């Protein structure tokens, strides 16, 4: 059975939920999937034990976590040597005041910072988890979201993720995985496809 590592960098837990859903779909497709936070020490050796890798990160204040970028830069050759995919999670990708061009810019920025052009790429709308934020983050996020025309009632949380799109992304990745024991061909470089 082919093994896939689903590596994520979550700020408030929503990107971790998306990573778990991706892993569940991969398992439904007959693959073995391991979900791991990119800041876990196991990441230093786990990529080597997997046939494919899916990496995802949340945007906070206009950038993916620096520690996710560092992991990708350090393990770039290993990531590129196997089937790979990247997903970005941000409010610009969907929901009120969505700005898909901004979401694409975050992905491009990540590509420039890491040197990695993934074989499969997607941007998913995230969530406003006002009730989990500390007072400073709640105030700052409310101000930013309000300027974009989004939800500003901080007494509740809002989820904008298109879970069907997440499942399609995972199923597409599963179809691209070689059968267990079959070496993966590394395709020619191509530009990322955005969703």
Would you mind describing this structure in some detail?
The chain has 195 residues and is of the alpha/beta class. It has a single domain (3-127, 161-176), classed as Flavodoxin domain (Rossmann fold, 3-Layer(aba) Sandwich). The chain is built from seven helices and seven strands. The chain has helices at residues 14-28, 43-46, 66-74, 76-80, 100-114, 135-147, 163-176; strands at 3-9, 32-37, 52-58, 84-90, 121-125, 127-128, 158-159. Strands 2-1-3-4-5 form a five-stranded parallel beta sheet, with helices on both faces. α5 (100-114) links the parallel β4 (84-90) and β5. α1 (14-28) crosses α7 (163-176). The longest helix has 15 residues, at 14-28. It is globular and about 50 Å long.
């Amino acid at each position: 059975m082919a093994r896939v590592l689903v590596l994520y960098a979550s700020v408030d837990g929503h990107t971790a939920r998306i990573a778990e859903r991706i892993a569940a779909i991969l398992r439904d497709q007959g693959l073995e999937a391991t979900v791991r936070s990119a800041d876990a020490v196991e990441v230093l050796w786990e990529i080597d034990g997997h046939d494919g890798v899916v990496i995802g990160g949340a945007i906070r204040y206009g950038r993916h976590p620096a520690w996710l970028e560092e992991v990708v830069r350090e393990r770039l050759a290993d990531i590129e040597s196997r089937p790979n995919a990247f997903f970005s999670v941000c409010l610009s990708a969907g929901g009120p005041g969505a700005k898909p061009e901004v979401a694409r810019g975050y992905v491009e920025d990540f590509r420039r910072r890491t040197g990695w052009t993934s074989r499969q790429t997607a941007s998913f709308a995230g969530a406003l988890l006002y009730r989990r934020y500390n007072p400073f983050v709640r105030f700052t996020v409310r101000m930013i979201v309000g300027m974009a025309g989004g939800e500003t009632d901080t007494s509740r949380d809002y989820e904008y993720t298109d879970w069907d799109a997440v499942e399609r992304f995972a199923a597409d990745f599963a179809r691209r995985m070689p059968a267990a024991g079959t070496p993966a061909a590394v395709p020619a470089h191509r530009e990322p496809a955005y969703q």
